[in-house]
Amino acid sequence: MNESLLFQDPVVCRFTESNNQCSVALGQQRHLQIPLVDGFNLRFTDKTFTDRNILKYRKTQSNPPTPNIPGWQFVNDNKTLILTSAERNNSGTYTVEIFDADGKSKGNSTLQLNIEGLSY
Q1: Helix (H) / strand (E) containing 4
Q2: In the chain, what are the helix, strand and coil shares in percent, each to the nearest 5?
Q3: d(Cα 51, Cα 34) in Å, to the nearest integer?
Q4: What is the largest CA-CA distance in the chain?
Q5: For residue range 68-96, what is the model confidence (pLDDT) as tens digits?
Q6: Could you say which DSSP state residue 98 is in?
Q7: For a FRET experiment, which of 7, 35, 68, 107 has its CA 20 to 30 Å from that of 93?
Q8: Helix, strand or coil for residue 3?
Q9: pLDDT tens digits along 19-76
Q10: Within a 13 Å sphere around the CA of 4, how many CA atoms are in the beta-carbon half?
């Protein structure tokens, strides 16, 4: 059996100043790279336009935050949110609102995530 089929590199999606899209195969690991900032709020909007807060981060907090959605991990060292196995319900719009050290909003960026794969 070909081991390269068993261990795929994760897909890395990044927020940009303008709207961005990222596609991930069903079941694949995805890394969402958050900008290196003093603070941010990350929320998710699904196909039914339901908003969910995923993570609130402030550089001054003593412990790294835990994502509010199962199956996600946050790596504080490089501000990466890891989705271990992409599912269809992870498709949607991710919005990160950025804050400075004083807690003032510095704007936001969005990312459209599409989970692709066969449906059975």
Answers
A1: helix 3-6
A2: 5, 50, 45
A3: 19
A4: 54
A5: 888 899 998 888 999 888 888 889 999 99
A6: E
A7: 7
A8: helix
A9: 588 888 888 888 988 888 999 999 999 888 889 999 999 998 888 889 988 889 999 8
A10: 0
CA 91 from centre of chain: 11
The continuous run of DSSP H or E covering 58 comes out as strand 51-58
pTM exceeds cut of 0.85: no
Burial 8-28 (b: 16+ CB within 10 A, else e): eeebebebeeeeeebebeeeb
The letter for the amino acid at 22 is: C
Question: Which domains can be identified in the chain, with CATH numbers?
Answer: 3-115 (2.60.40.10)
Which residue type sits at 10? Answer: P
Count of all residues that appear for the chain in the document: 120
Sign of CA dihedral 31, 35, 39, 43: negative
Residue 8, amino acid: Q
